[in-house]
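User: Show me an example of a complex going from sequences to structure tokens.

Assistant: Sure. Here are the input components:
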Amino acid sequence: MRVPTGEALLVSTDVLVSDRHFPAATSPFDVGYKALAVNLSDLAAMGARPLGVTLGLALPNVDPVWLEAFAAGFYTLAAEHAVRLVGGDTVKSPQLTLAVTVMGRANPAQILRRSSAQPGDWIAVTGTVGDAGLGLCSILEPNSDPASLSPADLTFLHSRLNRPSPRLTEGHRLAEFAHAAIDISDGLLQDLQHILTASGVGAVIEQAKIPLSPAAQAWFQADPTAQVLPLSAGDDYELLFTLKPQDWPQVDFPATVIGRIEAEPGLRVLDAEGQPLSLLPHGFDHFSPNRTSQP
Amino acid sequence: MRVPTGEALLVSTDVLVSDRHFPAATSPFDVGYKALAVNLSDLAAMGARPLGVTLGLALPNVDPVWLEAFAAGFYTLAAEHAVRLVGGDTVKSPQLTLAVTVMGRANPAQILRRSSAQPGDWIAVTGTVGDAGLGLCSILEPNSDPASLSPADLTFLHSRLNRPSPRLTEGHRLAEFAHAAIDISDGLLQDLQHILTASGVGAVIEQAKIPLSPAAQAWFQADPTAQVLPLSAGDDYELLFTLKPQDWPQVDFPATVIGRIEAEPGLRVLDAEGQPLSLLPHGFDHFSPNRTSQP
């Protein structure tokens, strides 16, 4: 690989373990696709462009059918973003484990960081939020999805869970003017908190402004108790970013302003009436046996 | 990280699983040290200089004592070669699994490859061969080491197994004039065969010329049946390389010529009397229950 003169080399690495980071029943195509997607998403959040990727694969046994489908998923996404596989290692292990390391390049003066949010910044997010969490919910809790949800809606939510789109184009564009960025892997509030902590600032979020897909809207219409899920569920791999309000016109891709950065520390979430959520769904577990209807 | 202008970015990745790539009883310091060493050795075999490393760690539980010793081993070797940890991920998993990816840089015109051996080349090896295999043997088969072996000899063999020295300086020097190179991780004959296959050539090796440490010599004096081990045991992480005989004076570090590349395909091993070994210890398993005295 060659890194263009003057550009910095950026790296991201993730380890995924079966039954922990994806349900063991996930199709091998989706396992391969997602293993690469979550790493490319990390590059996107830095504003970097991918150079190459390495893949470490620990497998209980060598099943050619599984491997072929896994490789098809991995290479489908790699081809889409012109990422070359530049190294790999396959070993035997009782537990299916994947280690992916992506290398990317960026103008060293335009690397997006978590620590650069400034009071007065708008907080925005690409795409829609909460889809992957709903998709996971419907898989782990069969019949948790409302009967009114169409098969197409359900397929959409599963696809958002299993084949997230790394926002590389958006991240590279944002690097020109955005202040801070992160990808939503752990949940909107938790990932925003990472920015706030690193930047030493606070924020206000308007829950009603969080962008929802038609499928998520259909779900929440039938099951209002699930409405807090987009605040806490992760795995959407959308980009959360902050920028000066006057730079908003430069955002030339689907994104939504959901709040603003403030000097006062802390994270405040306002409901549709503009009232602070008294009980933040921080750590709210949609899959907990103690799940009760929450505000 | 920055890659100097005009240099290529080279990558190597390895996955290590407990009980498969190292005995589960290996000290955490040694696990950390060796996980980095085997990857740096891959860079050495390409003639590259390290830039940075990522570490993926899948652990059954978070044991601060284990982690601290592991990190001490990893960082001890990293500091020795000025390698920066540039990314990491720690996850929970039933099986201790390590994924290490090293990035290095090299002059693109001077990258050592397996495919560049030429008929007439000498075949040489750095350091001594067979030590790690004997060390492993003494750990897996208690009392397999001859009683005459001194405690210092045994300590040396264990250190060769657990803390291999990546030959980065040697590899970088070899890149200026050597033809082909590989590190001995799978065993001398098997790794040489990788070069022969990639280069489309054959070779003759003189078994008596294989460089042995004083500890290995002491072992073989008491246990002559083990003498084939340096041909098949791996894990020494010495560099096996080929070069024009007239370039030999440029080798300014400990290395030994053990054979030569020939146009005729195949790998021939001559014993101390210059006779071909009729039964090559290819696939010879020192730990096999069927182990018998072999020539």
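The lines above are the inputs; the final block is the predicted structure for all two components together. The interface with chain B takes residues 1-3, 5, 8-17, 20-21, 51-52, 54-58, 86-95, 97, 99, 101, 103, 108 of chain A (CB under 8 Å).
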